[in-house]
Design goal:
There is one protein chain. This protein has 95 residues and is an all-alpha fold. It has one domain. It is built from 4 helices and no strands. The radius of gyration is 14 Å and the shape is globular.
């Protein structure tokens, strides 16, 4: 695997983890999840909702690993980073 692709896949994992952490901070402040699918998952699974969230991150990493277009991988990672940025803005407005 090319080192650029490996770095992009690692970035995907880090963005998924950052989404998980920032979502937990928001939930701990009494706010809710905006994504209806994840809200339903949180309702059904309670504290265990993190596992489907992580599973989706790993599925996405697998699918991205099948691509050889680094620009396309980077674009998708930028797209999935948008909720993390939104979460960070919400967290900053809480404090």
């Amino acid at each position: 695997m090319h080192w650029i692709k490996a770095a992009l896949l690692l970035t995907c994992l880090l963005v998924g983890y950052a989404d998980l952490v920032t979502t937990n901070v928001i939930l701990n402040h009494g706010l809710g999840e905006l994504n209806p699918f994840m809200r339903l998952t949180q309702t059904w699974l309670g504290e265990w909702w993190v596992f489907p969230k992580l599973a989706l991150t790993f599925v996405l990493m697998f699918l991205l690993s099948r691509s050889n277009n680094h620009r396309r991988i980077a674009f998708i990672i930028a797209f999935i980073a948008m909720p993390v940025i939104n979460n960070a803005i919400i967290i900053a407005s809480i404090h």
